[in-house]
Fold this protein.
Amino acid sequence: MKKTTGMNRAVTRTWRPATQAVRGGTWRSEHGETSEAIFLSSGYTYDSAQIVADRFAGEAEGMTYSRLQNPTVAMLEERIALLEGAEACRAQASGMAAMTAALLCQLSAGDHVVAARAAFGSCRWLVDQLLRRFGVETTVIDSADDAAWEGAIRPNTKVFFFETPANPTLDIVNMQHVCDLARAHGITTVVDNAFASPALQRPMEFGADVVAYSATKLMDGQGRVLAGAICASQQWIDEVLMPFQRNTGPILSAFNAWVVHKGLETLDLRAHRQSGNAVKLGEFLEPRIVAAGGRMLHPGLKSHPRHDLAMAQMDATGPIFAFDVGTRARAFALLDALELIDISNNIGDARSLMCHPASTTHANMGDEARAEMGVTDGLLRINVGLEDIADLVEDIDQALTRAGI
């Protein structure tokens, strides 16, 4: 590979995030290409038997198999680690592959996990179903209750697991409090930061041990590929995650890694522009929703119970918020009346998307679990995109009118 400034970690770590997003983790071949190459190869060849033996023994650097290393994937991992302020990162095949690996790699039967009750439906399935199936005890708490975290600790508590902001109710966790508490008790914190991305929030600055991502969301940001990532210390990645990843194989493809790598170049611009649009749209919506007897769940608005905490932890509050229009019939009527905004369960896209969580992302949780989380039949979640805010306001306005809200 050709030497380039993006490969000098001592230099790149001094750069600011916007520069790291464009330049960090840039490897160039002997051709000197400006845009990073895609290495679509499952395997590698070696100049001698001793070289391959040394690589497999961990005594020499270099590629062995794309389930373990790939140049394109490695570039993405380096760039994400730089943005996160982490020592190391390992890319995953999807966001849920990242969440699953981040938990299973460090848990055994008899361990205990404390998790936030407000979470993406599949993350709650991990906590409520999968972990318990393998003998891992779990306790679900209200993550906004700081005292509840300490109250849930047991002698066998191994992990705290939470999202902030949470999907879809936008709960905000006091990361400094929770991470300090975990460290005092020898507990590992695993934070799902997909709603914010490192462009808007960096949990490791508050003491988080492991930060996991659906890179499908803001990191790609244009609805093209599935991807995930796990960031942590080099020691944790090497000793805890890698044995699990090496032998179970939740590996990101080189093509998807390249797409996300290019998406990171515009992450800072997109995340801040979409956050600004989301605040403006929320400010338009709030009086109308409240007047109709509904509720707003938007950490960027002063009405959110943890608005001040969100503003202290985040550079901006992200493109996603939720609002409740009271009934499923009203929610469906509003969705069906939209003309610009698409009905879709994806988030982090450059396009504005809206969905009904109770019938989509959280449909399989059951009525009781949804009620516990606050995912009501009238709740709608919106991902605010890069469109002109005036067009978004006009579309929401006409849809509310046609839905009788």
In short: The chain has 16 helices and twelve strands. The longest strand covers residues 157-163.
